[in-house]
Amino acid sequence: MVATEEQLRAWLREADEMPYGPAQIALVEQVVQHAAAGRLPDLAFAARMLATRAYLYGGEPAKSFVSFSWCLAEYDRDPGRRRRGDHLQLLWDFKNVIGTLTKFPEIPLDRIHAVLDDMERRYRAGGHSMHAVYAHRHYVASQLGDTAAADEWYARWCAAPRDELSDCAGCDPTSKVEYLAGRGRDGEAVAVAEPVLSGQLHCVQQPHGILTALLVPYLRTGRLTEAAQAHRRAYRLLRPHVRNLEWIGEHVLFCALTGNEARGLEIVQRHLDWLARPVSPYAAMQFASAAALVLRRLTRIGHGELAVPREGGETTVRQLAEELADSATALAARFDERNGTKFQSGRIAARLAAEPLVEHLPLSAAATRPALTPRRGEITVPHLPPGELLDLAERLARTDRLAEARAVWRALDERFDAAELSPREAARRAEGRGQDLAERRDLAGAEAAWRRAVELYREAGDEVGAQAAAGRIGLLLCLSGRAGDGLPQVEQTTAYLMAHGGAERRASAQSRLGTALLAAGRPAEALAAMDRAAAEAAESGDAYLVADLALRRAHCLSTLHRLVEQREAAAEARELFRGLSAEGYAEACLLYGDSFRGPDAAEAALAAYDEAIRAATADGAGGTGRVLVEARLARARTLSGLGRAAEAVEDFVEVVAGYTELDAPDGATFARYELACAYRQAGRLVEAAEAAEEAVAGLDRMGEVQAADRCRYLLAGVYRDLGEDEPALALLDQLVANLDGFDNLPARARMYEEAGEIHYRADRDLTAAGRFAAAATAYAQCGAVLDELRARRRAALALHFAGERDAALAAVAEVDALVAGLPPAVAGQPAATWEKAMAGYETTKILIGADRLDEALSRIQAAPVAFRSVEAFGEALLAELLLGELLLRMGRPEAAEPVLRAVLAGLPRDAEPVPQAAWLLAEALVMLGRASEAAELRARYRLNPE
User: Cα dihedral angle (834, 838, 839, 843), rounded to 10 degrees?
Assistant: First the structure.
């Protein structure tokens, strides 16, 4: 069935608003086919004009040759039938087509030169500057390796005046940066780019194009921080689109030149399958040569046998390096055969043999941080009998000096065979092995070691030792979520040890019981057990045990939210650990700081966290570094809560590094999310995007669905703040799918609405209207009537700006019905008053556009009063400005003049609507015959009389 012309034009408008890519190409091709079948020549021309751009920027540039040639021939057949804009677009497309032709070696060189000559002829005939023509003659000469010609055309290009057909303010300097970098004039390249990067770039190829061109000049001029930032920002923008394969290759090359081979491999793996369907042979050559270099470097440093997954199977780093090198070399030979030179072969050979410019350039903030975990030097283990070595190791392990305990256990294993140990010594060694494995989070290994210890203790006739080891197993079960099995075992062993053990055994048993009860969610009983343990510890005379139990009591009180008592217990533990254990002292400071809540107590909390950090990093401090990471995390969160995100960033960065060093990837992932939040609050959006991207990937791997979606929402906002609309929209669409279900309707509606905002801001009004309408439907389903009203009025206005007059008027009727149907309990709220006034203001614009001026007037007159009733004075002035404009349209300058004068007097002099208000007032004065007053007003506000 052939679609109607009206349907096809609606499809074409929709395609024009779509982002570049396969979906846009499919829709525009459908319009082309139907227009041809329906014999609609004007529509066919418009569709093929759009198709040329869709192919060029959507990853299928070879198809653009046909659509461009067809449009050019159709234009030449009857130029008078086409608009000036069509002519200019065809002249603009010459540039893109020439750049693309060079990237297909099967296109003869004489044809490329013929297209260049045709471009120059048409530019001259139209009276246009030769600026763009010379730029593209320079580009073709550069591709051929004709240095003299490239230099000549470069000089002419720079001398020619810019005009409306010159490349944009980002792309033109990008090409110059590439030329200067190729000549080794890196300082000049950076100088050319700097003013461009300080401005706003809105081209589809910018700013990632110029940032990519600057990678090597930045490296060679020692601007390493700028180089890393350029790579991070540009690659993130490039990676979603296959059209960017050539530039992505430059980022792989950058990784090889900066000692970031692992990062390079990650990029190669992400885009490797694109080589099966490359955007062009030239792009394939660029990417393959850079990938081969980074893979060869990985092979050189010992990772050649790493597996690399690919479409249809997998290969190794070594094999893939040579395969890609051969492919790039063969492609270069094809280009040289076409060009009649050896230039591309020489260039690719140089790329494949390139050496790093920097030994290692850290690419993320976390990578620049020093190691967090304080390290003790290797201890010298004395030569002692097995029993005394076990005494030493147990004493070290019990006082949180596990790294030193491991050294002692290792010495024991090296010096004595298992057969040389007595049964009780073998039991003690098994118990220590279990403690070591538990610390390394090998819970199954720890449980097996402790079960063996129980057997060995019983063989040795030491039931107290067996019960203590069995208690460890029970606690392990509780801590791993199996309290139903573990808690009875802990209770049983505690009862035995209280009856048969000494004071130290009794204290340890009660401490284990308290920890097990805490893990089972019974903090009050846990605190009672810790109190009993503290009494036993006091009898034992073990200072470390006394201090440790004070600390455990503080943990229980924290869980019970008894903050004052927590603070007292933590203060006691801090004093007990002072001079005894840096780790214990640091943890007590951390708990002391945690007892302060709220903004008024934040400074006290920060002081305690600072003290914890100092203690954990002091000379002699050791352990796992866990307390240091937790203190940094607490400090960062407190600073963020105080609105001091810029200060919090450094702590969050160190927390990420610390968790990574502790081999706690889950902790690092959650910390990355908080780091991303802090970066965003601090206005460091590029870093926020990078941290959030890593966090989303990690949360997905962990199966943390809700947390991952929260992070996606954060990332969508960061992308939006960066002006990166397409990835923001992709995330919002993903969230809409993820949040399927009635309970999530408000969140889904918000995702639709935010997507609509992005489309609306990008002038994709028809698409925006669809998103706003979807948001309104979702809001309606969950009973959020004011949110529905907001979304409906926004959909109506977007339809108006999309030129969909009838649909916009139908949407106005929906808005009116919603306003009339607001429940009385809602309608009287200030928020409802504001929404109703805004609905009146925005629907007035639609009625004006439909020439229904009388209806518009009756609608707008109520809006200023309503806005002022809720103290929305700025909105009231805008409504009055619209009222004044409407009165002028209706030929009532006498009524418009006082309204507009009052608006102008009420606006701040630098407010955005001031020029419009002054211009309308001047028009009213002219219509009233007061031309001199109008002229004076225009002069005062520096308005153009026209």
Answer: 160
| Average pLDDT of span 760-769 | 91
802, 804, 807, 810 alpha-carbon torsion, rounded to 10°: 90
Phi and psi dihedrals of 312, rounded to 5?
90, 10
For 326-343, give the secondary structure using H, E and C.
Answer: HHHHHHHHHHHHHHCCCH
Q: Pick the closest to residue 678 from 661, 658, 654 (CA basis).
A: 654
Its pTM stands at: 0.71
Check: CB of residue 33 under 8 Å from CB of residue 782.
no
Question: Measured between alpha carbons, how far is 342 from 176 in angstroms, rounded to an integer?
Answer: 24
Give the chain's mean pLDDT: 91
d(CA 349, CA 290): 11
Token look-up 């926004």 returns 794
Token duo for residue 389 = 């070595």
Helix (H, G, I), strand (E, B) or coil at 27: helix
3-state secondary structure of 126: coil
Residues 6 or more apart whose CB falls under 8 angstroms from that of 171 comprise 203, 205, 206, 209, 210
Beta bridge partners of 313: 310
Residue 314, beta-bridge partner list = 309
Domain residue limits, the chain: 239-361, 381-461, 474-537
Which of these, 512, 510, 520, 593, lies nearest to 558 by C-alpha position? 593
Confidence of residue 464 (pLDDT cuts 50, 70, 90): very high
With b meaning 16 or more CB within 10 Å and e meaning fewer, what string describes 663-688?
Answer: ebeebbbbbbbbbbbbbbbbebbebb
Per-residue model confidence as pLDDT tens digits over 218-233: 999 999 999 998 998 8
Does the pLDDT at position 824 exceed 60? Answer: yes
- State residue 267's pLDDT score: 92
pLDDT digits (tens, 9 = 90+) for 114-143: 999 999 999 999 999 999 999 999 999 999
- H/E stretch holding 308: strand 307-310
Q: Are 903 and 887 in contact (CB under 8 A)?
A: no
